[in-house]
Fold:
Amino acid sequence: MATQNHFLLVVLAIVTGLVSSMRINFMIFAPLIALFIFARWKTGGLIFLVISLVIACGPAYFIYQLDPSGFTPLHLLGKSSKYIPIGALLCTAIASIAITLYWTHQIHWGSARFPLAIFTSLAPMLLVTAIGELAYGQ
Structure:
C-alpha cells in the first residue's frame, strides 16, 4: 500500500465501532471492513479490528454486566431465531463469506468499487432478514 495513514485508520475504526455498537446486526461492519483492509495492509487491518471491536463491544459489555437477563441484543437474537430457520441463516452466512472473499481478491485499495463490495457482502444477510421479517414479523 502506497499510503498508510494511521490517523485516518484510527478515526475510521472509532466511527465504525460507534456505528457497530448501535445495533446487534451492525456488528458485522467492523470485521467486514477490517477484512478488506487486512487484504491490502495486514497491520492496519488488525489495528482497525481491535480498535473498532473494543469501541463496539465495550459499552455493551458494561450494560450486560449490569443486567444480563434484560440485555436487549440477546433477547432480539433469540426472537429472530424463531422467524428465520437455521438452514437459511447458514446459507446466508456461507454466501456472505464467499462474496467477501471474492471481493477481497478483486478490489484494489482506494477502489471506487469498495462500497459495492461492502454492500454485496452484506446483501444476503439483509435479504434473508427482510424476507424473514416480512413473512413472520409482527
Q: What stands out?
A: The chain has a mean pLDDT of 78. DSSP finds six helices and no strands in the chain. Residues 42-66 form the longest helix (25 residues).
